[in-house]
Amino acid sequence: MTFKAPDSLAEQIADYLAERIIRGELAPAERIQEQKVTQALNVSRGSVREALLILERRHLVAILPRRGAHVTELDERSVRSLCTLMSEFYILLGNAVAQRWRNEDELRPFLDIQQRLQVAHAARDIEAFVAESFEVMRAAYPFADNPFLQETVENLQPAMSRAYYLSLDQRQANMVDYLGLFDHLLEAVVLRDLLRIREVLTAYGQRSCELVLAALARP
Questions:
Q1: By the 8 A CB rule, do 182 and 117 touch?
Q2: For 122-155, how does the pLDDT look when each residue is reduced to its tens digit (9 = 90+)?
Q3: How far, rounded to the nearest angstrom, does the alpha carbon of residue 140 sit from its chain's CA centroid?
Q4: Please, are residues 215 and 167 in contact by the beta-carbon 8 Å criterion?
Q5: Structural domains of the chain sorted by starting position, each given as residue range(s) with its CATH number in brackets
Q6: Which residues contact 42 (CB under 8 A, 6 or more apart)?
Q7: N or C: which end of the chain has fewer CB within 10 A?
């Protein structure tokens, strides 16, 4: 494989490795050897090191002294911690939209995502469905206007994607539930009902967490 655009080379390498981690092609606790990545991708060792630092910020890799980079492990504690934190971030974003939307045009991106979710559900495309569910938070960023919140959520999103990927087969049945939940969320946003937004997103976070934990428990 050959990469271009030197100014974003490390990011491209990080995305490539992240995809392999999310899909389970690189197993938890597996060591990522810089030299092998350098040779396989035909890139410099410095770019690989920078990419690993990006993955460390995204909680997919742990870099240990004298032991190098290893894929982080998923266990019940880490999954529950991640789901709890992400639920609170989702609530912050949901509240920001509810408090700051001014006209129907500003809500159009969410309605477009809702339609794409319905298309993904009809096609039984679980991966597209999960990807679109993350687009909801990105559509909310302008309303929050908080670069620290955005950076934190974006750095955590790959770890959340990895957790969700474990439970993709179980999410086939969960897609209908999510579509209903998203309907309720949009209703709460339109009504500026912050309590309902918290209820809906808390319930979603708990349900998602249980699906991931069930997948982890499978032999």
A1: yes
A2: 998 888 888 898 999 999 999 999 999 999 999 9
A3: 15
A4: yes
A5: 6-71 (1.10.10.10), 76-217 (1.20.120.530)
A6: 1, 2, 3
A7: C
In 25-118 the beta strands, taken as DSSP E runs, fall at 31-32, 61-64, 68-71
How far apart, in Å, do the first and last CA atoms of the chain sit? 34
CB 158, CB 22: distance < 8 Å: yes
**Separation CA 155–CA 59 (nearest Å):** 8
- 3-state class of 70 per DSSP? strand
CA 115 to chain centre: 20
Yes or no: say if 206 and 91 are a contact pair by the CB < 8 Å rule.
Answer: no
Distance, CA of 180 to CA of 84 (rounded, Å): 21
CB 86 within 8 A of CB 137: no
For residues 122, 126, 208, 205, the Cα torsion angle rounded to the nearest 10 degrees is -70
Residue 205 corresponds to which amino acid? G
48-88: per-residue pLDDT in tens? Answer: 999 999 999 999 999 988 888 999 998 999 999 999 999 99
Could you give the CA distance from residue 161 to residue 170 in angstroms, rounded to a whole number?
Answer: 14
